Each structure stands twice: as structure tokens, then as C-alpha cells.
Amino acid sequence: MEATELVEKLGQGRAEFCFPPSFRPRVEGVALSVLGLLFPHFADRAVCDTEGIAPELARIDAEFRDVLCELGAHTKVPDGDLAGRFLGRLGDVHDLLVEDAQAIFDGDPAATSLDEVILVYPGFFAIASYRIAHELHRLRIPLVPRLVTEWAHTRTGVDIHPGARIGRRFFIDHGTGVVIGETTDIGDDVKLYQGVTLGALSVAKGMANSKRHPTLQDRVVVYSHATILGGATTVGHDSLIGGNVWLTESVPSHSVVTRPSEVNVRNAASLNEVLNWII
Question: The sheet that has 197-199: what strands, in order across it?
Fold first, then answer.
């Protein structure tokens, strides 16, 4: 294709993809400012008293309204004071996140303080970003909630759809590779390890408005690289799902689900045999 043809083709395509390149970093900036408002650990400057918090809140309000104005120029945005309604929910979000941080601290012997959990743990950062995005999702604001959770995804390796419903005192340990789908329901005091997938059995577009992802009731623990699929799949409360389990049907409360393992004890003569690993 000649250069002039390429220019013409790309120029025509610009009308279809109209968001400016500044939109994504502006959304990420607002999300980081909100985190910094909730926890000074994320702020670029210390704001530790009411006198300092009030102007910071006003600044975030103005920035978020600018983002919504830009968004409204390109897609339909619900009517009403979305910025005011969102900021009005941040007190409840803060309370939930304090409980999440405490659950992580209580559940991990390697954690030495709540400050360490908030500053260091990727699971906490992913959960905090999700809880902010979930409130935006509840307000039916398009695009912005996904940008917030994908920002956290790139930083932590944890992919949580903002539409998922997650209860109190949630704990993601290590975090990398965790995937939580849009219609997932998670109860209180649930703990997930790295690599866990809570996904759909089918990704057909016609299922967009249906329950596609599993339900985990209260106090469920899911160990690393377990995969739980399907909107009809419910893991009953106080159950334990072992590592590498593939689960596509419901299990009752107090279940322990493990992947069958085969143990072979080698004798001295077989120790020199070459192991044929296929990875």
C-alpha cells in the first residue's frame, strides 16, 4: 500500500476511534488520586488532616467531572450528578478496604503490619482498584470502570471485572494470574491464591446478559491455579478447593475438592533414569 493510500485509510478510521490518547492516563490519574485520598500510602504528597483532605477532595471532584465531560462527548453517559454520587460512596469503600487489609494481615504470617499490606501487596492494590471501579460500574458509567481495573491488571497481574460482586474481608494471596469474571459472586471472608480462574463455560456473545461465572459462598478458600467455571456452579460455604482443580459443577458446603495425585516411590536402581518432562 502506498503512503498516500495508507494516510487516507487511517484518516478515515480516525472517525471510528475518537477517544484522545490522553483519556486513559487521565482516568488512571483520577483512580490513583482516589486511592491516595483513601490511603495516604498512594498519595504523591502527605495529606493527613481534615484541612488538607477537603481541598484534595475538591480537586478530585473537578478532575473526575472533566473525565466525565470528555467521556460524554464520545458515548452516552447516564444523567445526574455522577461525580457527587461516586465520591459520596468513598466512605463505605474505605471501610471495606480497611477490612480487606486486616484480613490479609491476619491471614498471612509474612505480613508485619497493615502499612506493609497497603504499600506492598499486589492483591490489596487489585482489590482497592476493583472496589473503586465497582462503584463506577454500579453508576452505569461506561468504559471508565474497565480502564481502572485494567490499570490494576497491568500493575499486578490480577484481572477483576468491575461488575463482579465481592463480599467483605477479601484476600488475594500473591495475586499473579488471578481472573475473576463479570458475573462472579463472592461471599465474605473468601481467600484466593495465585493463578485462580473464576470464569465462564461459554464465551458466546449471546450470553452477555446472563450469569456466566461461578458463585463462591462465605469462607471459601481456593488454592493456586484452580479453575472454577460456569454460572450455575456454586461452591458452598466453608469449602476448600485444592490447587490445579478443574471444577464445572456445584459442590456442597464444607467440601474439600482435590485433584487426584499419583505417588510413585522409586527404588535405587531407577534414580538414574532420565525424567521425560513435557512442558
Answer: 159-160, 179-180, 197-199, 227-229, 246-247
